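Please annotate this fold before class:
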Amino acid sequence: MTTPALVLHLTGNTEPVIFALSEGGAKALAGRVDKLMGSGAVEKLELADGTTAVVNFGHVVTAHVEDLPPHTKVYGTKARAAGLGHH
């Protein structure tokens, strides 16, 4: 199972800021990233771990949604169970 992620490149930062999105959060963004970027809108994101984040797209240079590689830890990633054999 893959987790959708919003990848943001901000002005003045060399590394992207990545948010793991919930399924609902990804659906809410689907097809809207270009409009959010064009308008410089402020958007509340629903993250995979149940928290939220607010993004001011007026400060974003580029943005896209992609699948997060397995075992990647970013903002909003769900906590994993400890130990071997847990899925």
About this structure: The longest helix spans residues 23-29. The radius of gyration is 14 Å. The CA atoms of residues 48 and 76 lie 5 Å apart.
